[in-house]
Amino acid sequence: MRHAATPAHWRQQCVLVVEDHCVFRAMMGWQLDKLGLSHHLVENGSSAMAAIACRRFDLVISDCQMPVMDGYSLARAIRQREQDLGCERVPIIALTGNLVHDDPQRCRDAGMDAWLLKPLALEPLRDMLMRWLPGERVALPSRSPGVSAPGWPTRASLVELFGSPQVVDQMLRSLLTEALLDTQALTHARNALDARLTAERLHRLVGSLAFLGGAGLESRGSALISEVRTHGVAFNQQKLEVFQRDLAAYLDYLREL
């Protein structure tokens, strides 16, 4: 069913979503379905460029931090392709859970037009699309992205954010399943002293935390990613153990919602 306030011209348009976290991809697809927009979902910048080579998209929403090809490299590749082929400029919206590492200026320098902050609710997404999708654009008042309240989310706050108890239940099931797999993979990477895999799994877990509004663990996880990349796993082993312990307690809390 199409969203009641969907502009008529959206029905002929298609959005490309580039997100490495499968739960986020599914949630973005659900949100775009609610808004009546056709969409295509891919997991990294390389897959996005392959999709763009096959068809035209009216707007791209891309996560900033991804394996294989990140959002910044993707944006630069799209802009270069447009220049080389003389294509019309497509709007690119950055999707990030951390404005410390993915600040707006860095997004602009890469060729992105705007940014959205996780956790992403339906209304901010719709407002951004109203600004940037080709066609009749609506001038909207400027507003800062929503900032999550301190503390852990409640079931009521998640239902308000995502609009439906059924969606919350489905999202939590998927997210917890993915988080368990990522946590197991993180433990394996730590034991193997594999800095690349440790940082990759931390990135996925931090993304899950940002999607639900933080819980105070997101900033710690983001800092650990930088520390692991700079100093390695062994140097940060104690911090990683404490982070995983606190993360396990948070995931247990979410299972009870």
TrEMBL record:
Q: Keywords in UniProt for this one?
A: Phosphoprotein, Two-component regulatory system
HPt domain residues: 164-257
What superkingdom heads the lineage? Bacteria
Q: Note the InterPro entries from the entry.
A: CheY-like_superfamily, HPT_dom_sf, Sig_transdc_His_kin_Hpt_dom, Sig_transdc_resp-reg_receiver
Phosphohistidine modified-residue sites: H203
Which Pfam families does the protein's record reference?
A: Response_reg (PF00072)
Which SUPFAM superfamilies does the entry mention?
CheY-like (SSF52172), Histidine-containing phosphotransfer domain, HPT domain (SSF47226)
Keyword Phosphoprotein part of the UniProt annotation: yes
Looking up CDD domains in the UniProt record yields:
REC_hyHK_CKI1_RcsC-like (cd17546)
> Which residues carry the post-translational modification 4-aspartylphosphate, per the record?
D63
Q: Which residues form the Response regulatory domain?
A: 14-133
UniProt name for this protein: Response regulator receiver protein
Q: What is the scientific name of the source organism? A: Pseudomonas libanensis
Upper classification of the source organism reads: Bacteria, Pseudomonadati, Pseudomonadota, Gammaproteobacteria, Pseudomonadales
